[in-house]
Specification:
Elements lengths: L1 E5 L20 E2 L2 E2 H11 L4 E6 L4 H6 L4 H9 L3 H12 L2 E6 L6 H6 L10 E4 L3 E4 L4 H12 L3 E6 L9 E9 L2 E9 L10 E9 L3 H6 L11 H8 L6 E4 L3 E4 L3 H14 L4 H12 L1
Parallel strand pairs: 1-4, 1-6, 4-5, 8-12
Antiparallel strand pairs: 2-3, 6-11, 7-13, 8-11, 9-10, 10-12
Length: 284
């Protein structure tokens, strides 16, 4: 299976830092956010990855490329642990880059990767979400896909007041966290949301999604929404949703990014004790 990682957004909510710096390169502890996503793909058994980029995203390509000068410098300074880490990043996966020329929404970003996908099912992994757990979230979806031979979306129960930020499904529960999707709505009015199960930025989609995207009209926000293209396909084939096991960190907003860094720092064996001591002194 291949993976598509949309990373073309301009990061409006993080301005001015994203004026020149891709939001996907914002650090979460000591790694850029998008590296967590690529590592999840690799840990799920995926090595063919397409990252959808746009103008000003060259730093992403440079990060996953080899840096022979830096590797040589670190070796000369007897910092071979750092050298090996940098080298591993440049060799971790076969990554190709496709540019989304206009920012027309997530659906359009996924459609940009149509030449990379040969009609088979593929994973879509959004860079705004980091998932950590014993089994990678994408791997969990792949297992459900293999069982039902059908597309699968990661979902999570959210408070009703937050549902207007997500795609929300109407579904029939099958058991063990698996649901058959009946309908899906992009960013509904929370009072009218069909359930409390929201999509969480990880998908296994069929190749037919590209044909559906071609006939999908602009929706919420005047953009081509992936949710609407999925909805168009529901009459033609079954889609499933899975309540994934693990923890999701939302880094799509400054407050979400700050909370994610704080929580992960507290859990990190390198920084946790000192950071906790600092927070306790700060809060009195």
């Amino acid at each position: 299976m291949k993976a598509v990682i949309p990373a073309a957004g301009i990061g409006t909510r993080f301005l001015p830092v994203t004026k020149e710096q891709p939001k996907e390169m914002l650090p979460v502890l000591d790694k850029p956010a998008i590296q967590f996503v690529v590592e999840e793909a690799i840990d799920s058994g995926i090595s063919d990855i397409a990252i959808i980029t746009g103008r000003g995203k060259r730093a992403i390509e440079n990060h996953f490329d080899r840096s022979f000068g830096l590797e040589h410098f670190l070796h000369q300074k007897n910092k071979d642990d750092y050298r090996d880490m940098v080298k591993r990043i440049g060799e971790m996966a076969d990554i190709m880059y496709v540019r989304q020329k206009e920012l027309n929404g997530l659906g359009d970003a996924v459609y940009t990767a149509r030449g990379f996908i040969d009609g088979e099912h593929f994973a879509v992994m959004l860079g705004d979400d980091i998932f950590l757990g014993a089994t990678p979230c994408t791997k969990q979806l792949m297992e459900v896909h293999e069982k039902y031979d059908a597309p699968v979306l990661a979902v999570q129960a959210k408070p009703r007041e937050e549902l207007g930020r997500y795609g929300v499904i109407k579904a029939e529960p099958i058991g063990h966290g698996i649901h058959k999707i009946v309908d899906i709505i992009e960013k509904p009015d929370p009072a009218e949301a069909p359930s409390n199960l929201a999509t969480m930025g990880r998908y296994i989609l069929p190749g037919e999604i590209f044909e559906s995207l071609e006939r999908t009209e602009r929706g919420w926000g005047g953009e081509i929404q992936l949710t609407d293209a999925i909805r168009n396909l529901l009459e033609e084939r079954d889609f499933y949703a899975y309540e994934f096991r693990g923890i999701r960190y939302d880094i799509g907003t400054p407050i979400g990014w700050l909370k994610s860094n704080a929580e992960l720092a507290l859990k990190d064996e390198r920084y946790g004790a000192e950071f906790r001591e600092f927070l306790e002194s700060l809060l009195g």
